[in-house]
């Protein structure tokens, strides 16, 4: 009886883990769209102000901020990146 309950507990635990993994999409984002890359961007305000639009798009999408870069102007994208990734005293 002990082996059966151990096996049953293992299967239930495995099924719960499998279900939680299926709630993530293929990019590792949950249903909210938020993703956390391994590294925090280390750009300065000057870097963001000179950054090309395609690079800003990539950076914003890497952090799940796709909604901001789809319809925004280049100036707005730079402002979003500066406000999101820099400490207030850095800009």
Automatic annotation (TrEMBL):
Keyword annotations: Signal
N-terminal signal peptide: 1-17
Pfam families linked to this entry: DUF7722 (PF24847)
Superkingdom classification of source: Eukaryota
Domain called DUF7722: residue spans: 40-88
Classification via InterPro entries: DUF7722
Name of the molecule in the record: DUF7722 domain-containing protein
The organism of origin for this protein: Brassica carinata (Ethiopian mustard)
